[in-house]
Amino acid sequence: MPTILGTGEHRYRVVENWARLPDGWSLTDVASVAVDSKDRIYVFNRGEHPMVVLDREGNFIRSWGEGVFSRAHGLHVDADDHLYCTDDGDHTVRKCTVDGKVLLTIGIPNKPAPFMSGEPFHRCTHTALSPKGEIYVSDGYGNACVHKFTPDGKLIKSWGEPGTDPGQFNIVHNIATDADGWVYVADRENHRVQVFDGNGQYETQWNNLHRPCALCCCGGGKQPNFIVGELGPGMAVNRKVPNLGPRLSIVDSRGNRIARLGGEHGPGIETGKFLAPHGIALDSRGDIYVGEVGVTDWKTSFPETEMPATVRVTRCLQKLEKVT
Length: 324
Hints:
Helices cover 5% and strands 41% of the residues. It has 324 residues and is mainly beta. Strands 1-2-25-24-23 form a 5-stranded antiparallel beta sheet, with no helix packed on it. A 4-stranded antiparallel beta sheet has the order 3-4-5-6, with no helix packed on it. A 4-stranded antiparallel beta sheet has the order 7-8-9-10, with no helix packed on it. A hairpin with a 2-residue loop joins strand 1 and strand 2. This is NHL repeat-containing protein. Keywords: Glycoprotein, Repeat, Signal. InterPro entries: 6-blade_b-propeller_TolB-like, NHL_repeat.
């Protein structure tokens, strides 16, 4: 029997052994995923082939990015099928075509801004676009802020600083926008998503989340839903506490939970469990693709267990097929 996650209208079938890679290939950590207008899935990963492209059935199409990217972290695709690839290893965002041609680079490769300076970038994490094509970049590991750029990469403004108050961040890890121009920021270690207007003015925040890591806006309407990928416990003292994730939560535009997928019994490689949801995308049929950093997270979740080889090969990428 297939494994089903979720309830009501939000039920998903776990598609096992979905990705079909060339012999001998490994994805390792899948930092982020994106889906273009033709339902091609772009898998931004930390293996030898940074961008692996698959079709809806999991068949391999091509790869690119070898020798270009240092450490995959964030991926966003725009309405014209341009890909914004956020590389926290060399502190850049690259705008690329679907076959890997670099059209724009924001940031200076391998030259980070000073730590916590608020200047772009120091280990940037993700990218999103405004309705006008302005580029928002979350700058979250060596900074605690969001930067806004013109479509051609000129800095407009930055906002945020370290802390726990509204407008402050403790690892600004992911970012998304909606059709009205609201900006949603996954403030991971503050256990919340903060909501801003397009100029960085704080509006509200969503609570009752556990280390929100991945963030995906579903639909272009006035009241979209969001899928939030939540990490599990990060400390030894609560490592085995149930009902903390890792999991996916589906929320409305006000942050009210609609459904929750998994997470009741902690991490695992068993069907229906997650390791470390780090990137989420949807295709035209509503199927969910989840990139996970299970290799990096393995010692946090299972410090005394040897990591199975399957985690490095394909287990860091999952497909959840919407049940209709």
